[in-house]
Fold this protein.
Amino acid sequence: MSQLKVVLSGGPLDFPEKEREQIVSVIAEKIKHRWGAGYEHFVHDGEFATVDGEKVAVYHWERRTAIAE
């Protein structure tokens, strides 16, 4: 299984920078990342960027949902 680096863009202003780089096994359409008392939803629309000489998929923030009880 390969490890791919992706970058999460946008979202809440206090979303930590260290959380913005994620490792995934496949480039999917969406990523749901648990943070605080909810989930941040990010979507991939085909955009890629070069970070530290490496091509990475860029996911843009779409919305936040609460954690169901």
Summary: The mean pLDDT is 92. The two ends are 33 Å apart (CA to CA). The longest strand covers residues 38-51.
